[in-house]
Amino acid sequence: MKMEFAIKHTWDGLPVSHEPATIWLKSDNVGxxxxxxxxxxxxxxxxLGEPGKPFSxxxxxEVVEAFFLNDRTGQYLEVEVCPxxxxxxxxxxxxxxxxxxxxxxxxxVTRMKNKWEGKAHLPWNYFPPCINKFNAxxxxxxxxxxxxxxxxxxxxxELQEGQKPDLYTSRRPILLLPYCSKQSYLYRxxxxxxxxxxxxxxxxxxxxxxxxxxxxxxxxx
Length: 221
What we know:
Strand order of the largest sheet: 2-12-11-5-6-7-8
Order of helices and strands: EEEEEEEEEEEEHHH
């Protein structure tokens, strides 16, 4: 089963004024296929790095991002893909705690005049154990026109006067990541995870993560 997530709001809950960026997730035995379809703004211009290769600080450019979080440990996988073909994968633990970066990725992109599409294959061993939260972003624009759009935005009643989207660093709205329903996300992930290893992992999430990282074959943080 393929799950679809459309990014229809800005980080602070306002509707976007264009066709939303959309992410599809589908599992197989060796990983998670992440497909992206998004408007192409070409703003900022393309990074100088080689297409198909990791590019440091890709979040400063036009990107679609996905975050897979274990909120008990603070460990998460950050996936960034760009319409020009560059990508950036990071494993982090807590605030700014980069554990691994510029992980290799199978990523292909098709770019049209006003739209781009991408496919990225994420190996299962890239994911931290006991994922229980998820969010995604579409980011584009330069300077004062920089736009942050979120799948799960900050609820309007929690916004504070003068609040900015870049809550952890000058450019990256990591703190928006927890704004999703834990139970609804677990259900969505259960639909994605069809093989036995995924179902075992999900049972461990729901029951308090009794299954060891080593048994499931994930990266040992």
